[in-house]
Amino acid sequence: MDRFDGQLAVVVGGGSGIGRAMVERLVGLGGAAIIASRSADKLARVAEEIGPAVTARPLDMTDTGAVEAWAEALPEVDHLVISASSAAHGPFRDLPMEDLRGMFEAKFFGPYQVAKAVLPKLRAGGSLTFFSGVLSRRPGANCSGLGAVNGAVESLTYALALELGPDLRVNCVSPGMVRSEAYAGLPEAAREAMYRDTGASLPLGRVGSVADLAEAVTFLMANAYTTGLVLDIDGGHRVRQYATR
Fold first, then answer.
1. Most exposed among 20, 34, 76, 206, judged by the fewest C-beta atoms under 10 Å?
2. What is the mean pLDDT of residues 45-68?
3. Largest alpha-carbon pair distance within the chain?
4. What is the reported pTM?
């Protein structure tokens, strides 16, 4: 992996889970990061734990005015990674429209307006990385809304790779199930059973780790000949067996 000496990345969602792991890897490779999320306290704690190469700047992606002011105050940066996510599950017939709209606000419109606001601060030769998810192209029951928003993020990735090149590279990471804080609200027994059963259905026999995803993001940031790519980091989810083997 190339080093990131002298390079600065903005990581939205960098206060926990995949985003935090990505920041830790970036700093370990010589880079620096500005991390953002809604929780100022969490960001400050993470910045202190990782070290002086990390700066915390809280942000609510769904507040257009706040996004514009926040982006205006940024220095020039080399990379933008938006790993924040949201999920609303439920049958198509029953999923409340407010839940669907809330998910699109958090996972599509929020990243869209952050990318647009930060664009003037991105140096030529830099990168923009979005996050989608496996349900965009391998749907699951009761996940039509989540599959739709993931598909929208991927479509935006393709379009921006074309529109913003050659100055910027635009890619997307599509994670499968990953052991992370995203599932912290589940009871431990249910959470471990979910990891076990999903892992058993995958060719690699396990769910992912945040380190797996962090490695993928830094690859996309570093590789100068990669753009317009949706990179599946999912343990083989697209060829998985839905029945436990």
1. 76
2. 95
3. 53
4. 0.93
